């Protein structure tokens, strides 16, 4: 076999390998982005913004989150635990009227503890806990991010940044959606509960889910969230 023929065969083989590799990448590439976008929803868009519009970098980050936390199996809560967390959340909502900053701090602590009880990384590892929550509760995890940021913002920085009572109220409202996700039974334990959790799950941000429960209604129907700037005190 001549040298020229050998070189020609090597070139042809190399071209075939390159074409096969390109076709494989094209076959895999288009699926990953949409798949991640479906899984992470608004978290996908936030990741893209955080990476200055670089979708590939955002997808690499989200893929790493799935690899680290995708196999996590959420633990169940005992009924007594669930009642305790619900009582604490109701108390935090009611406290918001007089002490919004303290209420936000309590909501942040409560979500951290609740996530830990459900099997997510310990709250002392906030970033890792948030990443794990984003894999399993992507559509509501930003509420935790917002309430955590509000809870750790110093009062003077909040004033300088224009964050007032309304911003903290909105953070609490957003965080409630994640609370409701975490406090209900795990999927492998039968999924949803009835009654109050399901009533507030989809529209709780604007209707029944915004009140503090029976205690709030006992105050003549006044909802803790139906506050104005005169009633709430910056702390």
Automatic annotation (TrEMBL):
Keyword Transmembrane: yes
Alphabetic keyword roster: Membrane, Transmembrane, Transmembrane helix
Annotated stretches, region: Disordered: 186-235
Basic and acidic residues compositional bias, start-end: 186-202
Superkingdom to which the source organism belongs: Bacteria
Membrane-crossing segments per the record: 6-25
Protein name listed in UniProt: Secreted protein
Protein's organism: Streptomyces variegatus
